[in-house]
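tokens incoming
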């Protein structure tokens, strides 16, 4: 169960590193929002997957990797675009707020939905694993934010571009893994 939880938390960790890079200075509120939402979505998605059962799995598995790819690509592309705009706008997208937070929360927890489906197929209880998955995702998100923040201070202004490219790469990785593996 811990192996599954850490495996699922890796996308949340990677996105949190990118968010820390983007933000540079990470507030306590931003840390709480991102880790809470990533942990909450990682908790609920296995439960939703378990409830969804076999019928939904056939429909979702055909395109879940495409959904994650497009969601992460959209947010990452938006970050890259904004980083290349002139600095006098002073606008940076905060990945811990609004639509970006929801999109990233969904994109990083789609695999947890698939794990929940497999638990349902195996008739395995889902609540305890979902709690562990959510807690580990929240902790890994906090660690990723701090790592990204520290790297952002060292590398400066180009971190928003790098953060966006990292999100696009994570989306591409999810897509390639599913296309080659499934």
């Amino acid at each position: 169960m811990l192996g599954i939880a850490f495996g699922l938390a890796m996308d949340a960790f990677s996105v949190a590193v990118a968010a820390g890079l983007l933000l540079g200075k990470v507030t306590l509120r931003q840390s709480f929002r991102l880790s809470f939402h990533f942990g909450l979505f990682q908790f609920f998605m296995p439960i939703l997957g378990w409830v969804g059962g076999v019928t939904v799995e056939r429909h979702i598995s055909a395109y879940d990797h495409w959904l994650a790819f497009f969601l992460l690509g959209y947010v990452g592309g938006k970050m890259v675009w904004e980083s290349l705009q002139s600095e006098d706008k002073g606008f940076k997208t905060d990945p811990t707020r609004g639509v970006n937070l929801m999109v990233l929360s969904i994109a990083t927890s789609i695999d947890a939905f698939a794990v929940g489906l497999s638990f349902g197929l195996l008739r395995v209880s889902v609540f305890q694993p979902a709690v562990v998955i959510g807690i580990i995702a929240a902790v890994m998100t906090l660690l990723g934010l701090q790592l990204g923040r520290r790297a952002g201070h060292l590398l400066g202004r180009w971190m928003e571009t790098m953060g966006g490219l990292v999100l696009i790469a994570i989306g591409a990785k999810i897509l390639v893994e599913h296309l080659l593996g499934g």
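note: Residues 2-181 form one domain.
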